[in-house]
Design goal:
The complex is a heterodimer of chains A (57) and B (411).
Chain A (H helix, E strand, L loop, with lengths): L2 H4 L2 E3 L5 E2 L35 E3 L1
Antiparallel strand pairs in A: 1-2, 1-3
Chain B lengths: L9 H5 L2 H10 L2 E4 L4 E4 L2 H9 L3 E2 L3 H8 L5 H11 L10 H10 L4 H4 L3 H15 L7 E2 H6 L1 H10 L7 H15 L8 H25 L5 H7 L11 H14 L2 H15 L2 H9 L4 H11 L5 E6 L3 E3 L2 E3 L4 E5 H4 L34 H18 E6 L19 E6 L3
Parallel strand pairs in B: 2-8
Antiparallel strand pairs in B: 1-2, 3-5, 4-10, 5-8, 6-7, 9-10
The chains are: A mainly beta (57), B alpha+beta (411).
């Protein structure tokens, strides 16, 4: 992954961290998936806010 | 000592934002002699008060102690017995045990399974509202109130016929919890509501023990964690059921009604949302920010906490003004404008930290489906009053009524 693709993102609503190295296996998202590669309708697995409410750390 | 910004005047209840702006500009953290509390208005410090472990949420016992010996002491003791069991009024470790029970069932991926049922409820309420097209209706009574009430009823496995009674009990409890200033008999009404709802729920629990089913209540009854104090007691389950009804009803009603009001006052954004329901998720976040359902949170400092240029002393009470923080210009561009496409929206309408609203995923789904159904079936919405009446309680931000008219969509 490039440095940008490696970026960790955090949920602005609850603070949940998305680490691309880990992915989101509970949602079928494999490790190594950059945040930008998540589906458009992906939501925070903790508070349910939409993907657009994440920011790069 | 700072000037006393008065949020209790008729003008402030109608529109508190000028007072918020004055606080944010002049004294975002200040002591209010009239409230006998610190008041926090700026985003960073509101977020600190919400999540810092130096602040406690255990305020029911101090209230009961304060009222001991008074005319309403017995009623308040009983109220604090039931409501004091709420996890929103408990610090760790007691809070952690109760929250653990519900963490998984309330997660977004679990709540998503309720979306089809929520869509059905929305369609049902829409069908009841449709014959009133062309007339002036109270949107709160017709839609914003019944939808979340029926959703909560479904969640806890209660017959839909009981929902109006549950709603009435919830409103009476709200008068006490939210310190309604316009209800002199609030202790009587809340006491009777809690006693009646306790009897009802004990019957529902007994029925679920005899006939377990696939719902939240059966999950709570079956919950057992040897590391964490074992199964929930019936007292704990009753407390939680009262909390669900209470926390999941009026707040979501406010989200839906306040959101529709924001659209009525911003017709171009109403039109944008009507033509593109992909904007629903960001629109719901903006409704939560612009006129959040919960205006104030209360905390008690457990130790001295330096904040801004003051020190909050151990034992001092603190009011965090969520809706003031949502107008903080250091955090939100054009904070006083509604923007349903606001790119990033770090509002704290659901709180933050360990007490963040566990129902947030459910509220978000309800908000999205409420507006999807409304805007699919109806258009030509009009606000049919020039005098909005906001409820006079310190904690929530909600309307008494929202008179509107609408037409059925013909596509």
């Amino acid at each position: 992954m490039t440095e940008a693709e490696d970026s960790i993102w955090h949920c602005l609503s609850c603070g949940h961290i998305y680490d691309p190295k880990l992915g989101a296996p509970e949602d079928g998202i494999p490790p190594g998936t950059p945040f930008e590669g998540l589906p458009g309708n992906w939501t925070c697995p903790e508070c349910g806010v939409h993907k657009g409410n994440y920011a790069r750390r | 000592m700072a000037e006393d910004f008065d949020l209790t005047t008729a003008d402030a209840i109608l529109d508190p934002t000028p007072i918020f702006a004055a606080m944010l500009q002049r004294e975002p953290v200040h002591y209010s002699p009239s409230l006998k509390s610190w008041v926090i208005a700026d985003y960073d410090n509101v977020k600190l008060a919400l999540s810092d472990p130096r602040f406690s949420v255990e305020k029911m016992s101090p209230f009961a102690d304060h009222m001991a010996g008074g005319a309403d002491a017995h009623k308040i003791r009983e109220l604090t017995r039931v409501l004091g069991g709420w996890m929103v009024f408990k610090d760790p470790p007691a809070h952690s045990r109760l929250r653990q029970v519900l963490q998984q069932p309330f997660k977004p991926r679990e709540m998503e399974k309720l979306r089809p049922a929520i869509i059905d409820i929305a369609e049902e309420v829409i069908a009841e509202m449709a014959p009133k097209a062309g007339q002036v209706v109270d949107f709160i009574a017709a839609f914003a109130n019944p939808l979340p009430a029926r959703v909560i009823g479904t969640l806890i496995g209660v017959d839909v016929a009981m929902v109006p009674q549950l709603t009435a009990w919830s409103l009476d409890i709200a008068k006490f919890v939210f310190s309604a200033r316009d209800t002199p008999d609030k202790y009587d009404r809340a006491y009777r509501a809690v006693m009646d709802i306790e009897v009802f729920y004990r019957q529902v629990i007994a029925d679920h023990r005899a006939r377990p089913r696939d719902d939240m209540l059966s999950h709570m009854i079956a919950y057992h964690d040897d590391d964490d104090g074992g199964p929930l007691t019936d007292d704990e389950i009753v407390s939680m059921l009262v909390l669900f009804l209470f926390a999941g009803h009026e707040t979501t009603t406010n989200l839906i009604a306040n959101g529709l009001l924001a659209l009525l006052q911003n017709p171009r954004q109403m039109a944008q949302l009507q033509s593109n329901d992909a904007l629903l998720p960001s629109a719901i976040e903006e409704f939560l920010r612009f006129q959040g359902p919960v205006q104030t949170v209360v905390r008690i400092a457990k130790e001295d906490v330096p904040m801004a240029n003051i020190t909050i002393s151990a034992g001092d009470r603190v009011f965090g003004l969520l809706n003031a923080s949502h107008r903080d210009p250091s955090m939100f561009d054009n904070a006083d404008a509604v923007d349903i496409q606001r790119a990033q929206n770090p509002h704290v309408a659901f709180g933050f930290g360990i007490h963040m609203c566990i129902g947030a995923p459910l509220a978000r789904i309800e908000g999205q489906e409420a507006f999807r159904a409304l805007l699919r079936h109806f258009d030509n919405f009009k606000l049919e009053t020039t005098a909005l009446t906001w409820r006079d309680d310190f904690v929530t931000r909600g309307l008494e009524t929202l008179p509107i008219s609408f037409q059925q969509r013909i596509d």
